[in-house]
Structures are given as C-alpha cells and as structure tokens.
Amino acid sequence: MTFKLPELPYGFDFLEPVIDAKTMEIHHDKHHAAYVNNLNAALEKHPEFEANCICGLLKNIDSVPADIRQAVINNGGGHHNHSLFWQSLTKADSSEFAGLVKEKVEAELGGYEEFVKSFSAAAATRFGSGWAWLALDKEGKLVVTSTANQDSPYLTGLTPILGLDVWEHAYYLNYQNRRPDYIKEFFRVVNWDFVNERLAKHLEKLGK
Question: Domain named Manganese/iron superoxide dismutase N-terminal: which ranges (predicted)?
C-alpha cells in the first residue's frame, strides 16, 4: 500500500479571500504532493511498514527503523498535518463555533476569546516553520500547543484536533510577512462541524 495525495474537498478558490486560489494550488499540488512522494520513497526501504496507517506510524515512531525515522517524521507528519488541515477549512464566515468543542473550550480553556488568544500566540511565536494546534491529551482534555516543521502532535502523545500551518508557503503570496494577519483571518474559515466530529470521535476512542 502506498500513500496517496487526497483530493481537496473544494476548489482552489473556495477559501478566498482568506486563502487565495494560487496559494491553495501550490500548497496542495506541490508541497503536500512532495510529502506523499517522499514518504512512499522512504517506506520502500522497509516494505513491512507500508501497510501501516500514517497515524499508527507517527504514534509509534520509535518502532520505525532509524534510517527512515526522520523521513517519516518529516514527510509522514507533513502528509497527515496537511490532510487534516484541508478538512478543517470551509467557506469564510459560514461555520459556527458551537457544540462539543464550544463546551470543552469554555470548560477547559477559558472560553472562545481566551482560546483564540492562546492559539494565536502559539502560531505567532512559533519560530520559523511549524504548526499551531488544538489537541487532546491522554486524559481527553484540550490543550493548545505548537510543533516545529512538520512534527505531529502524535509524536508527543497528543491527538491533533485542529491545526494551523504557519510555514511561509501557506500564506506568503497573500500576506507576505504579516503572519499575525493570516492567523487572525484563519478563524473565519475554520470548519467547526468537522472539528466537532473529530473531537467526538477521539473522545470516544479515549472512553471519555
């Protein structure tokens, strides 16, 4: 089994004006595709791992042979991070922050405004390239964190629920060096319905 580039669930221009069509085209067709191709190339050296799901590989990264481990972290993380990112986005100003995620954010993170503040800070202060995350810990509690490069929260025992890509290729055509503007606009295109579905599914897996 080889990993495949997933199709976007919408057109390149669907997220405009928050994320422009050219950025989406390059981001998906070039950057994400490269992660998939490089992941498959790495796994060819150890075909016994090819049948594993990407989440399983990242959760059990120490079991991956040392000679391809960093390639799986970089490219497997890039593949999973981006696959989650595309699904987490929708048309600007069309999705309501409600339901289970609202309940847990209010109970565990101090409410929506505090969550936005902490998530934005995690994204803005991530030096160089990386991601900001809303994730679940092993106890089923929400946490806000960030990771460098394409590292996945799975590597540290967290389950990613919502992520924001702050690599420059994710925003530079439209926002140039104004990362804080990109972060602010991101909340307009979050697909909270998808976030709620993912949150409920993983809480169930944790028995919460």
Answer: 2-89
